[in-house]
Amino acid sequence: MPINQSAWLTAEHLPEVKQFIDQHPEIESVDLILFDTNGKERGKRIPVSLLPKVVEQGVCLPASVFALDIQGETIEETGLGFDQGDSDRQCRLVPNTLSVIPWKPGVAQAMLTMLCAEREVGFFADARQVLRRQLLAMKARGYQPCVAVEYEFYLQDLEPDEQGMPQPPIMPLSKKRMSETQVYSLDELDEFKDFIDEVIAVCEAQNIPAANITAEYAPGQFEVNLKHSTDVLLACDQSLLMKRAIRAVAKQHGFTANFMAKPYSEYAGSGCHIHISLLDEEGDNLFIKKPEILHHSVAGVLETMPQSMAVLAPNANSYRRFQPNKFVALWPNWGWDNRTVALRIPSDSEENRRLEHRLAGADCNPYLVVAVILASMQEGMDKQLNPPEPITGNAYEMAGENHFPLSWPEALEAFRSCEVLYRHLTPEYCHVYLENKYSEQLTFAAQVSPLEYQWYL
């Protein structure tokens, strides 16, 4: 859905919705999905007979959905709970997300986005609307972003190991437990062929453009790529729906799909890599047409990267991923075709010149990550910032300046002090996000871990 098209379905879309219902007489109900601040699905299930009414009138959910922490508790400090009487907001269906659910016979799904009380604009605390505002700002400059999302994840056994911890799965064909790192292994793809084939088939059934799946740098770790798209909102919609699909398919095959940033201490973490370029109104790649735009964009992203960590690494576990030689950068840097840096310019054809932002973890909210990247690019272009020299060689062996905050409390404080993000994302949204995450961080810090008993009892 290009930016200038409908941001949500209205009565004019009724014919295509009714056509979907007619084409799928087996559908009895529809899951209406709203992704919260943490990218976790919330929503309602309705009889399919009510779907046309929802298209015309919307459906109500409380604004406090975006005040929920990772455990589903309302964080009152956000101001979205009792302070507003826990009031409802109208939610409308997101275009291009109505589809069947292959693993739930008789059930379809569609995404929701929340509107303000006046029902004319998106609700400020909906992460999807945070991204939409950045896209509109880019459009006002005459730029059309083009985005592709990549996720890494682990397949794990349903049963924990002897210590009660998650463990790699048993391979379906050889019946051996995975224990080796075989990056890009075709043998591992053969072992998990049935799972991979079903993921691709489910994605096709749901119009999710999953390009390929590769074996990654640890036992049971895989990467799945989505095709690039100028419909940036839809690209992020599809990335979250793909995670939902992968989890469901994994469960059917006797596995758990884990999108934690760092599920194992001894292996590499899982990232969410964002590929992004800018097109002009003629569809030409501005990173080629005007190389200074590429340089200003790189500089802007690098300048705000340390203050963005609270979004790129949103949870306590996120910070365990940042270790040397684990394919994640430790300070703001960039380079040409270099996977040890934070911003990589892949060695592809010139027409595909793009940035690969490699810092976010697989536990991130893609709407917010892309919004932060676009806001930072705008800042770099507006101020005509210039980047430092690109890194050649192993960035882990070099000492850089302005290291990332590598603990959750430090990252939250860095975010709070970032004037750029407050200005672009709005103070109102930054307040909601920070209060949500501060409360979560304090709750986490107050817990006594098993390791503390082991070490100190």
Automatic annotation (TrEMBL):
Its cofactor is Mg(2+). Residues 25-120 form the GS beta-grasp domain. Residues 127-457 form the GS catalytic domain. InterPro entries: Gln_synt_N, Gln_synt_N_sf, Gln_synth/guanido_kin_cat_dom, Gln_synth_cat_dom, Gln_synth_gly_rich_site. Gene3D superfamilies: Glutamine synthetase, N-terminal domain (3.10.20.70), Glutamine synthetase/guanido kinase, catalytic domain (3.30.590.10). The keyword Acetylation does not apply. SMART domains: Gln-synt_C. GO terms for biological process: glutamine biosynthetic process; polyamine catabolic process. GO terms for molecular function: ATP binding; glutamine synthetase activity. Keywords: ATP-binding, Ligase, Magnesium, Nucleotide-binding. It comes from the Bacteria. It holds the Pfam family Gln-synt_C. PANTHER family: GAMMA-GLUTAMYLPUTRESCINE SYNTHETASE, TYPE-1 GLUTAMINE SYNTHETASE 2. Belongs to the glutamine synthetase family. This is Glutamine synthetase. It comes from Reinekea marinisedimentorum. The lineage of its organism: Bacteria, Pseudomonadati, Pseudomonadota, Gammaproteobacteria, Oceanospirillales.
